[in-house]
């Protein structure tokens, strides 16, 4: 993932503009087994899969990585990014530090994604990241517990479909949303329903 | 695919087709323990080499298999007409079948990108040379900055 560090100028009189250094940090993963098909550009990690990088911690039973083909074009960015200023936070890079060559990630089975920055946690049966849209869609099989997101304050959002937009940071939900705000003094930030129908159920359950 | 077995002790550069693999296997058998083995795999459509299996020593064992020590497999990508090493798979030893073109081992192995951006290790693997398909069975650990895609 991307990290930004501002180098302080060595001497005050030189006063060069602060350099913004963007570094690609590493990603580490472990699993029981691994299958890699070079022709299909497909990698499958299975069994106790855990992926850790500087921004997130993902665990699941199976992780499928679909790499971009030569015919695939990089995703168009919806918003033109202004020039970076010193200390400004950079938008998240491509998912799990794969350097932009991942087309899609599919995590299946007991999926838990922890945001290492704010300690929020997402859980579900399946999470699909699509590079084209930079969205993560969290779902569960019918009959299983709904996917949910728990923020650092204990607030919960659960719905059959939860969508996280990595570019905007918005969180969306579809089809029967349940919200438990946890600590009411510090409500869950940015809970946005991108598409109707969305049903808000009101105050937290006890 | 077209496969050619080259053993360093052979004086001529062989150009046989896949059907001659058995002949190469028997040749290797008569020269048991010989130094180095090279076994390239070519893309039939383009004639470009797509992978190369090498070993420090090769010894014929039962079932038409070769026991290769110091195994190293390189896969290639092409930037225009320029060939570049993409992935490197290494293992202390493995079995290789001339019939199926499958290299396998129950021991440790490593996989890394030639540019150093990603590496992977595990124990127990199967490499299907014709299909360019790799399976690692146990204790897989991956460290990557750019993943394993052949595309930049």
Question: Please, could you describe this protein's structure?
Answer:
The complex is a heterodimer of chains A (206) and B (152). Chain A is mostly beta strands and 206 residues long. Chain A has no helices and 14 strands. Chain A has strands at residues 2-7, 19-24, 27-31, 33-37, 42-52, 56-67, 102-115, 121-130, 135-139, 148-150, 156-158, 161-165, 171-174, 178-180. Residues 1-13, 18-24, 87-100 and 186-206 of chain A have low confidence and may be disordered. Chain B is mainly beta and 152 residues long. Chain B contains one helix and nine strands. Chain B has one helix at 21-30; strands at residues 2-3, 6-7, 35-42, 49-61, 65-79, 82-97, 102-113, 118-128, 133-144. In chain B, strands 1, 2, 3, 4, 5, 6, 7, 8 and 9 form a nine-stranded antiparallel β-sheet that branches. The longest helix of chain B is centred in the N-terminal third of the chain and has 10 residues, at 21-30. Chain B is globular and about 40 Å long. Chain B starts with a strand and ends in an 8-residue tail after the last strand. Residues 1-30 and 147-152 of chain B have low confidence and may be disordered.
Number of strands of chain B: 9
Can you count the beta strands of chain A? 14
- SSE ordering of chain B: EEHEEEEEEE
**Class by helix and strand content of chain B?**
mainly beta
Please provide the ordered H/E string of secondary-structure elements of chain A: EEEEEEEEEEEEEE
What is the radius of gyration of chain B computed over CA atoms, rounded to a whole number of angstroms?
15 Å
> Which regions of chain A are unreliable across 5 or more consecutive residues at pLDDT < 50?
1-13, 18-24, 87-100, 186-206
- Profile the largest sheet of chain B: 9 strands, antiparallel
Low-confidence stretches of chain B: 1-30, 147-152
Radius of gyration of chain A: 19 Å
Using the alpha-carbon principal axes, give the shape of chain B: globular
Query: What's the main sheet of chain A like?
Result: 12 strands, antiparallel
Oligomer: heterodimer
**Please, how many helices of chain B?**
1
* Strand portion of chain A: 35-45%
Q: N- to C-terminal separation of chain B?
A: 26 Å
